[in-house]
Known about the structure:
Layout: H1 9-13, E1 19-23, H2 30-40, H3 61-64, E2 91-101, E3 112-125, E4 128-140, E5 146-157, E6 182-189, H4 192-202, H5 212-217, H6 227-242, E7 248-255, E8 264-277, E9 280-290, E10 296-304
Amino acid sequence: xxxxxxxxxxxxxxxxxxxxxxxxxxxxxxxxxxxxxxxxxxxxxxxxxxxxxxxxxxxxxxxxxxxxxxxxxxxxxxxxxxxxxxxxxxxxxxxxxxxxxxxxxxxxxxxxxxxxxxxxxxxxxxxxxxxxxxxxxxxxxxxxxxxxxxxxxxxxxxxxxxxxxxxxxxxxxxxxxxxxxxxxxxxxxxxxxxxxxxxxxxxxxxxxxxxxxxxxxxxxxxxxxxxxxxxxxxxxxxxxxxxxxxxxxxxxxxxxxxxxxxxxxxxxxxxxxxxxxxxxxxxxxxxxxxxxxxxxxxxxxxxxxxxxxxxxx
Length: 313
């Protein structure tokens, strides 16, 4: 594709190397953490701590939540500081995320975010031109203590009427025996109510996740679950497996298809390899999310240290 073939390529390309900083409008509080965990259906008592009122946030809270309650929203329902196309040009879709965790957020943290735009790429999809934008989001507390880094890639997509829900390929991925220990799966039911509660808990008002008429006008069969939501569930699967969020060091994942209300999602994973690093044993894990039709929605990799080892390891 010739450079600039996408309707506003030059405008986005000019942002490469641009750095911006944002500060939360108020500190993390117990209510925000609990609402986030409750919206996702998480039951870990650490996320609630009714006795002391000092809950620990799920690992992905810092990445998934809009921390500025005073932010304005654009016509698509996205914060004005986020990257959005002109309203007439189509949608913003999530391509993937690469999370590196330092520590979970907790009540009292005033979260600061630094964003640096890394790369812009153009590709041609089956529906026309696509523009991929990748940037780093570095999160710290008010004292500069690191919370994590999210390298995020989003897709700008022109309007594409008539898009149909993808059909499953029939391929059942990652079921080759002997690849290693299987991570206990996490199953969750997606409903519009859950999606609405998640939108409220995260401050995500993007029309694509709650307005059925808007979604259908853009060729989708219905509203779809926010991409961050699937990453939240993958991280929670890893935390439940290790029983210690501090052992989960990184998670990266790419989106392959969308989740819709009524879908039953299953997060799965397997240990691929072990290696020694700085005197500690690391596990490299293949992780993915599939729906009730065994259709792949998300796939990626995670690093856990130290993992719970089987007796024969």
